[in-house]
Amino acid sequence: MGDGDIEGGGEDGFHSPIGRKYRPVLANDRAVLEMSSMDPGSSSSSSFPDQPPNLRKINVTASANESSDAKGGNSPRQLQPNGSQQESKLELFGFDSLVNILGLKSMTGEQVAPPSSPREGEDISITVGQPKPAAPKLGTMMGVFIPCIQSILGIIYFIRFSWIVGMAGIGETLVLVALCGTCTFLTSISLSAIATNGAMKGGGPYYLIGRALGPEVGVSIGLCFFLGNAVAGALYVLGAVETFLKAVPSAGIFRETITQVNGTAVAQPIESPSSHDLQIYGIVVTIVLCFVVFGGVKMINRVAPAFLIPVLFSLICIFLGIFVARKDHPTEGITGLSLETMKENWSSDYQKTNDAGIPETDGSVSWNFNSLVGLFFPAVTGIMAGSNRSSSLKDTQRSIPVGTLAATLVTSSLYLISVIMLGAVASREKLLTDRLLTATVAWPFPSLIKIGIILSTMGAALQSLTGAPRLLAAIANDDILPILNYFKVADGSEPHVATLFTAFLCIGCVVIGNLDLITPTVTMFFLLCYSGVNLSCFLLDLLDAPSWRPRWKFHHWSMSLIGALLCIVIMFLISWSFTVVSLALASLIYKYVSIKGKAGDWGDGFKSAYFQLALRSLRSLGASQVHPKNWYPIPLVFCRPWGKLPENVPCHPKLADFANCMKKKGRGMSIFVSILDGDYHECAEDAKASCKQLSTYIDYKNCEGVAEIVVAPNMSEGFRGIIQTMGLGNLKPNIVVMRYPEIWRRENLTEIPATFVGIINDCIVANKAVVIVKGLDEWPNEYQKQYGTIDLYWIVRDGGLMLLLSQLLLTKDSFESCKIQVFCLAEDDADAEGLKADVKKFLYDLRMQAEVFVITMMGDAQMDGGSPQDESLEAFTSAQQRIADYLTQMKSEAEKEGTPLMADGKPVVVNEKQVEKFLDTTLKLNSTILRYSRMAAVVLVSLPPPPVSHPAYFYMEYMDLLLENVPRILIVRGYRRDVVTLFT
Length: 984
What we know:
By secondary structure, the chain is an alpha/beta fold. 52% of the residues lie in helices and 9% in strands. It is built from 32 helices and 18 strands. The strands form five sheets. Strands 9-8-7-10-11-18-17-12-13-14 form a ten-stranded mixed sheet, sandwiched between helices. Helix 7 packs antiparallel against helix 14 (396-425), helix 13 crosses helix 20 (557-574) and helix 31 runs parallel beside helix 32. The chain is elongated and about 130 Å long.
């Protein structure tokens, strides 16, 4: 045990990771091993002998130094005074195992690795001893605030914001900035709440949304957010290239476009970079940045903060230039801070422009407030930059809220101030034509401003090309979509394949070469992600589950809802067509994930929502009886096979098919139950494994239902407990479904009659309906078409249950071609016509199509030569003989022991004339069924209750005679209430 592996302890116990030998924990304690190594919702696991095959083995690897100490017997904990006494106390309660496995700080100060949460079936490795030195963690300033500032203050502010002010005017631009700023501010609050509700892993917003709204929503929005980041990288690259070509016109390969400016007294030629130059330089820059990303994230993290210095320097120069404008080297169109200029630029002046944004009378692009929202919104994106670095932060629950909200407020304030400053410093013509107005007004070094703009946009592009591949790798590592397996990476490795794929996407967008066409696409994907974050917080806040305890307290579900609605409104403001396309793309990914994706239970908010909805619905149903109009069958499917089943088949293969036949269009719930004989403490683990196997089988058979396994001393006691306690309120099962035990006489199973009759009596006492299926082996599946009739032998009033079951059968593909026939049994001919008229009127009012027949038992028994009766006479004679023999045996035993007649452990009273009458009635009914329903697809007949004080053996003989030679039959007993109604 020097290597520290924990194996099954057997009789000798097991060794702890630090070299001590412990006694094994008792099986019914289960200690804490299975508590620590399982995902939520998974089955238990342990390191004990005879563990089920679905449990995992836990490998614990000690560090080299500690392992050598253990071998040498020099473990520090063994040398403690009173150590043995302390260990004994800890071992008694299992605390020592808890400390080691969960990775809590040891009482002796030892450091233990944090726990992992593996998937089902995976081995885990827990390293104890001194941990490896971790990489330096980032604080709020460098980890969140600066990355957010760097991502928000970029290309749009420097080379598009002044143009937006000129087009929309100061007034509408203020509204525009306030609208977008409010959207990001509310999203930041929602992000802060979710991010402070627990530890975060890689994936940023994808991780938060997926864990709140489920894997399907998380993957669909996560992939859209990945596309948005990839396209944003192209946006920043094009911005850097355009700025470079403006600063160095001679670097252009192709001839620059020359256009005329509208609205000026003297037309002036305005030069704009060629789209081909943007494409060529953009591709080159993207490739260079891709090589930098391949160099490793450590180098990027060292270089990235340096990109912020030119941005801050540029801002200082811009505001200094605005204040000193026209005081030194006056420029045409620059008026300096002027109230008159501010008044002229207050209102909007939307014009047509060419693809480069230069105003033209017959321009191909029309602008309005909605389109400017799409152009500007990427300027306020970047609030997720801090959450994307969650793994590198010292304290995520403090840094993410403070840093993100501070960056949002600072940048929003800066934008609002810049609107007024830019609108008051230059004429509208200058705002619309000078795409680098910020560099024009900057003081004292305008040329350095262009360098700063290039470096800031290059830094933002580098962040996009760094973050997007890691987002894609995080989605792939969650193993939800098999198609993304190519992008999986090991922990600590660089996502090279994902980076290459992101670079190809970025180059494809660069080829478009037009910023104003790319920005709406980026906007849609970012808004979709922001709405997902807001909806996640809204759902979690509204449900308020016990696990929802965020440290960030300044949030409310109404704010998150407003934020989500605001995101959707902005999406439709920008472009309803782009919105529909983006939502359709997310919906397609969602549908693909739900069909092809692997199941993943992350404890998402929808599960909590379903739980809350179920509780509210259960309370709304109340404790009173459900109205017949709202009655649904809730079958309790008793999986007792009454015979042997194939290996690994937990219930009869056709039982699930029959349970589906009791649901209309799949609506309803079935509860599959089975009983495990034995002691609960000894069989608890076997019951869990059997329940999991039965649940898997139900899913395989496409039957909506739940599985329950009950451990009881015997089947009768177990079923009695099930029938009393299963279900909640009005969601308790109302029909017990089971297979008829056709093998009871063939295999001489003497315990079946008493058990079977006891189950029926329990159902009657508990007021549960009963459906017993005979001929289950021949029951059709959904692909086997049935023709002929569904025949109902309606003998007693059952609340309409038999009629309702026949209608439910007709809704299934296998029985849809059948017709219903209702046979009513009358005692004499005088009642026949009146009974037939009443039944026809009743079926008409129930909207049920069926042909009605009235049969007089006394008359029909002697018709047509009595051939069906002759066919059943042999079975009748045999039943008489067996009952006589059984009665003789009971009397003999009673005389020997001097006791009254006993059967099934209780006294019985046998009226031999009554027994003959029961046999005779059963014979006549069987003969009637054979005469009229020999070719029926399925027969339904009322279930006679077990006679009081008769032996169970007698009742089984009655039932066998009733079912003789009928291949497929349902024996139905209703309960004391109606399940159908005549009224609307």
